[in-house]
Structure formats: structure tokens, C-alpha cells
Amino acid sequence: MNRQNQGQSREGASINTPATASVPTVIRVAVPVPLARQFDYGLPAELPTPAVGGRVRVPFAGRNLVGICMQLDPADAHDKLKPVTEVIDTEPALTDELFELAGWMADYYLHPIGEVLATMLPAQIRRGAVLRIAREESWVATGHTGDLKRAPRQASLLEVIRSGTGATTRSLYDLGYTRSIITALAGKGLIRKGSAPDDDAPMTPHAALETGPTPTGDQANALQALQALGGGFQPALLEGITGSGKTEIYLRLIERVLADSRQALVLVPEIALTPQTLARFEARFGTDGAVGTLHSNLTDAERAQTWLKCRAGQIRVIIGTRSAVLAPFRNLGLIVVDEEHDGSFKQQDGLRYSARDVAVKRAQGLGIGLLLGSATPSLETLHNANRGRYAHVSLQQRAGGARPPDFYLLDIRGHTLHHGLSNDLVRAVRSHLERDSQVLVFLNRRGYAPSYLCAACGWQSQCASCDTRMTLHQRPKVLVCHHCGRREPVIDACGNCGAAAMMAVGVGTQRTEEGLAELFPGVPLIRVDSDTTRTQRQLESQLADIHQSERAILLGTQMLAKGHHFPRVTLVAVINADGGFLSADFRAPERTAQLITQVAGRAGRAQAPGEVWIQTYQPDNQLLRSLIEQGYPGFAQQELAVRESAGLPPYRPMALIRSESADATSALQFLQSLPPALPGDLEVLGPAPAPIARVADRHRYQLMVLADNRSVLHAGLARLRPPARANLRWSLDIDPYDTF
Questions:
Q1: Is CATH 3.40.50.300 the classification given to domain 217-400?
Q2: Beta strands in 475-593 (DSSP E)
Q3: CATH 3.20.20.150 fits domain 3-126
Q4: Cα separation of 602 and 398, whole Å?
Q5: Which of 85, 457, 542, 683 is within CB 3.0–4.6 Å of 706 for a Cys-Cys bond?
Q6: Domain-by-domain residue ranges, the chain?
Q7: Could you tell me the sign of the dihedral formed by the alpha carbons of 663, 666, 670, 673, in that order?
Q8: What is the pLDDT of residues 212-265, one digit of tens each?
Q9: Cα within 13 Å of Cα(160), Cβ side
Q10: What architecture does CATH give domain 402-449+506-643?
């Protein structure tokens, strides 16, 4: 995006009374508001000239907002422009590369440039904080000598500082030294505060601290293939079965980048995966600040400081979740997207971007390598690999000699289940526990039961604010709507007929936990779902319990399915595999197959063989059968053929327009007004109610738009200029992840 040519409108932010001071310069500003315009302001003579790409504070609709200077025009000033309140930056806040990327995102996702630019900035910087790295206090030895025989802790501290490790105050605290010991040593002239690193110092090569394990033959072949791609923009898919050692491939490629004085970005889908990934990267590259993290669990101050240090080149490797793809780098050399198929990479509100797709565009713009890793690649990525757009490298062997698990389908039609568990599955669980192994029971539904109904008349407990049933929870005993959060007390008598015949129908993780505790008393039972695991600290504690236990039952939702290494798990039990294969959402079978494959990959990762038992009411389901018999690659190719014949992504681009309002008629009529404004070369489906048509007392509708190519889709959607309507929200989602 050319900073000098981003004016979308010459309409200024005017005032009713003329300004008394002369305004020699007009500044075009991108303001973080949902309007596809930029606004002109006057620069008072007493303020410094802002940098194009720098932040300014401007009055807007009765507020003072921080926007980005897009253009300076000293020849076009007039006295009816509102004046800039404050010039925050006389140097650009965003690099040229990120500025260009913001322009592409605004065009591709048809989103206001002001909101795109604001999304790129950490909250503190978005609010106007100074772009300054907080210098961490550090200590160096002066070279002087002194008698410390009667002060052994001071002598020990001096040795630590002289050795060149633990020289920051924080690291010395971690080693057990107190402020009084540090100041006492400084008072004797034996240590002094160290100098701060120079932000403008050239980046130097960074060597790994250890060489890591010897690559397997499969890994060595993959590394050779990836390194043979050479420099420049070379997107590659690394399709590796679970446990095949994809992370070791990432580490070795990053070693080469750091040795070349460049930086690397590693995207992971979940915060839960960040600590274990960070630990492995720090073991390879050190704990001296070369590796940093960016995710939503950081404080605003921590996030801003990591952002600034990365921009300055002080952090060499960033590991982060979705928004880390927008971090500034001084010299980025490689982007890795781990678990590239994961839906967490798609932002579901505001600027609805895909971090994976933005990573592809960013790597292309910088002319650097891009590696997409997954055991279950998305159909979009496989389609690009099939067409030759991406290199395709495979890892088909598990590291350490472990072999893939064996699969078994359990036909539960007509079976009596005990809290969701069939007798055959119970016997399998008991068999593995008797070998002092761990068992992972997977059920992607939290709560006790998804329905609470009257056995006499069939009445069901419905949410008063949503078109959905209330879920019964037992601890505490309450009815909860998982969509709006509404909570109601559990009733013993029917709200319709008054009969005391209320019953829980279906199973959630709480109910299955109850059944497992009854069946296997004395066996440690660890449940991991969003009810038991609300913080990162709780998750880390539960994972520690899992690794410290010998035989145990792990019960959980998809929080347990992604990326974790449980070497003692030899059996994975999938309680219900049917729902996703029967959904109206055309993406649901893909997501279900990925989830089953990922959770199955937790079994047999060490020397003991693994088994995966899947309960189903549809053992002859063609999609499930293809997954079990041909593995994920066979399933994916079959599903791609279905998508092609149906004219669906990735063969045709798609967008979804959603509307919601407290008034159902308004939401529906808004979408009905759009098709006449769209060109005839677009396929428009709907409008139709969303699958859950009412959430939190707001009615929801959607309109699906497809085209034969992306340029036609974007050109048609760019023509939409619906007027703002009171009490109605609407959004445009390019490449939607959830279509129903």
C-alpha cells in the first residue's frame, strides 16, 4: 500500500465555526471506525509534522481517537478542517511492509483501513503509548576485587554475574538473590548496572544451544526436500502424521534462519500449546530473550513490549496465536504455521481475517519461506498442493519407532449405554488400565446432559433468549445456555404439565465423568474442558498431573485433542463420532475428520501400541468408513471430489453476509435488499435464518455468495454500500470458516 496514495475520500472532518489559527497542512487520517473512508484534518503550526504511518490524536464524533496518518498535503489546507489534537509519532509506528499488508487486508476482506491498522497495533500502542522499549535492569562485573569471605551469598552472586548468565535483575530474583544482596554488592563497587541494548544495532547470527535429536530417515528426507526449495517465496505443506516430529523440522529450519541473522515467526492455534512449544524452543535457542510469545493471556504492557522488541530485532523467534501474524519484524526470514487447518486461525468478529492466509500473503510480499504443518491439512491447502502452488512434503513415520494406532468401530445401535459408554468400550478401557496405561476418553460436549425434558409430555427446557435448549450442569446444579450464558435453576416438576417426571437426556463430559468414576473407582480421573479449565495455570496443572500419573483416565473435549504429547496413553475412546458427519454445514465433515484424527494421534506415541475405539450409530457412514479405512489423506481426496462436484470451496470462492437485530423483520429485509445490488455473475443463496436463528434475543439471518473466481466475487461485493440502520448489525465474511 503506497502511503502517499491511500486517500479514499476528499471529504474532511469539518466544523461549523472556522478555525482561528492557520492550518498550513492537511493530514489524511485513517480513524478506527467502521466507515470505508479516511478523514482530512488540519495540522496547527505549533505541532510537529507527523510521519506518514505515524499516530495522531484527532477529534471525531465527540471523542478523541488515535488514528494513522496516511497522507500529507501541504498545498490543500483550508480553515474549515478540525485540527489535529496531538502528533504522537514523527517516525512511522508501522513498518512499510506492514503498511502494505494492511492495504491488502482492507481490500481482500473489504474492511475499513482504519480498523485494519488499529488491529495491527497492541492495545497500549493503539491508545497512544510511547514507542519505547522498557529497559530491563541488568548487572555486569566491574573487574574490581573485594573480600567476600564473610558474605557467601554476595560471593555467589558475583560468580553468577561474572559467568555471563542471569545478569538481569529478574533472572537474579529467579535464582533466589534478593534486592539487598544485589545492592550490597553494587555498594562495594564490584558490580554496576549494565548498558541497554541498542535498538539500531545490526542483527547478528544466533546459534542454537544444542543440536537436538538425530533426525529419523523420514525427517532427514523431509529436511532435504524443504531445503532444496531454495530462497525466496517458497510455500510448502509439511503433512506429517501425529507423532512424526514436525516440530523438529521447524526447529532445524529456524536454526538456519537465525544463523543468517534473520527472524522467524511460528503460529500456533491455541494458547494452551504456547507454553510447551516455548519450552522446547527455549531449550534449543536459549532463555535470554531470543524467543518471545504473543497471545491474549499477556497483559497489555507485556504485549506492547514484546511487539517493540520484535520490531527492534531483539527477539529472534516469536511464537504466537492468530494475531501474532501481524507482529512487526526487523528482518523476518521464515513463517511457520503449525496445525494450519485449525479454525482458531480465523477471526470470527470485527476484521474476519485468516491468520494462515495472511501469513501466505506476508511471506509472498517479503519473498521468504512459508511452512504449513499439519497431520490433517485443510482442503484449501491440499487443493493448492494438488495444483502445484505449494510444495508437498510428507512425514509418514512416527519418531522413536512408534507405530500408528489401530482403529475399531463400535456399532452401538440397540445397545444400552452406561453414561454414554457401551459394554464393549468399558471392557477395552479396563483392559488398558490393567496394564497401567492411560486412557483418553473424548467427548466434545461439556455439561451433564444437552437436554432436560419431561418424560410425561415431552416438554423441554428452552433458553428464553435463544432458539436452543438449556444444558444441564451438575456442579453446580444449574441449567445453562451455552450460547448466551443464561443460567436458570433446575426444576423438579414440568413447566408444562406439572408432572415430576423431568429427566436428563444425552451425555456431556460431566455425566461421562460420573459413569467412569462409578466403573473405575480408585483410578485417577482428570477432566479437561472449559468448565474445569478456565485459566492457563489450571491447564498446566492438569497436564502436570497427567504426566506424573501412571494409569489414569483423561476425559475431555477438543482441548485435549490438539498437540499434546501423552506417552502413556494407549487407548483413545471417541464417545460419539456421528454428529459432525450429519451436519448441514458443508465444512463439518472435514472438521470432524480432522478432530477424530488429531485425538486418535494421542494414542501409542511411545513404545506401547495404541488403539482407537469409535462408538457410532452409523457404522456404514461412507465418510466415517473412508476415514478409518483410508486414513485422512483418502478421506480428504474423496471430500475434495464432493466439493468440486457441488461447486463449493476450495473450487469456488465464497462470502457470507450476516445480519442480526432485535427485530426479525429488519434483519431479514436488510439481506433481501442486497441481491438487486449484486451483479448477475454472482450466485446468491438465501437469505435464510441462521441455524440458531435467535441468540441473546437477537434474530440472525445470512446470505451466501459464490463466484467462479475471486476477482468476480470481490468486484461484486465491493459494490455493496448499504445505508446504516439503527439497531441492526451486519457483517461481511470472506472465506467463512463457519457457514451454518
A1: yes
A2: 477-480, 487-488, 502-505, 525-528, 552-556, 569-574
A3: no
A4: 12
A5: 683
A6: 3-126, 139-193, 217-400, 402-449+506-643, 654-734
A7: positive
A8: 888 889 899 999 999 988 788 999 999 998 888 899 999 999 999 999 999 999
A9: 22
A10: 3-Layer(aba) Sandwich (3.40)
